[in-house]
Amino acid sequence: MPHGPYQPAPGGPPPNRSRLLPHLLLGLVFVIAVVAVAALVTFRVLRDQEDPGTGGPTVLSRPVRFLAVEKSEPGPCKPGLLSDPSSAECLQVGSGMTIGRVADIRVRPPDAARGRTSHVVAISLIRQDAQTFATMTTKAAQAQPPANRIAIVAEGRVLSAPAVTSPITGGEIEITGSASQFTKEYTEGLVRRITGR
């Protein structure tokens, strides 16, 4: 065997550690990115399944109807009229719309800076329902009481029947009332009644 300079082993030069480091770092960055994306997807799935009172897209457990109030009278309710639990009135309702899901539903706390003295149930309708609701609320806002109200009905029961003060054209609904009635507990209960959960 001849003597002389070192001869590389067959198959190429020995690995250079300074060249391996960038490849290892690149692999590490890739693994971290995959873990981060998996965590984000998991968070998004969990957020969509969280309690509907905390907001986010929500599929309602049964259809909810928004129906125009045509007439109201004191109880006890005659056949064909629906009892409004918040006012002890009996409501005759007309046409309206049915929804099966919302883009968002949550309770918002009082906000003095915005002039909100009570808790609020905030609902964002999906785009397909927003236009129909805009038409309903435009008509209700121009009507005299009690036809200025829209009843929220599920399984034949009135959940709430708020008055409409102005047309709601963007699909963003706020159901509110006096601070003594629209407490945190009341509004959270209303969200549960609307979502059926």
TrEMBL record:
<dbReference type="Pfam" id="PF22599">
    <property type="entry name" value="SecDF_P1_head"/>
</dbReference>
<protein>
    <recommendedName>
        <fullName>SecDF P1 head subdomain domain-containing protein</fullName>
    </recommendedName>
</protein>
<dbReference type="InterPro" id="IPR054384">
    <property type="entry name" value="SecDF_P1_head"/>
</dbReference>
<keyword id="KW-0472">Membrane</keyword>
<feature type="domain" description="SecDF P1 head subdomain">
    <location>
        <begin position="116"/>
        <end position="181"/>
    </location>
</feature>
<feature type="transmembrane region" description="Helical">
    <location>
        <begin position="20"/>
        <end position="43"/>
    </location>
</feature>
<keyword id="KW-1133">Transmembrane helix</keyword>
<keyword id="KW-0812">Transmembrane</keyword>
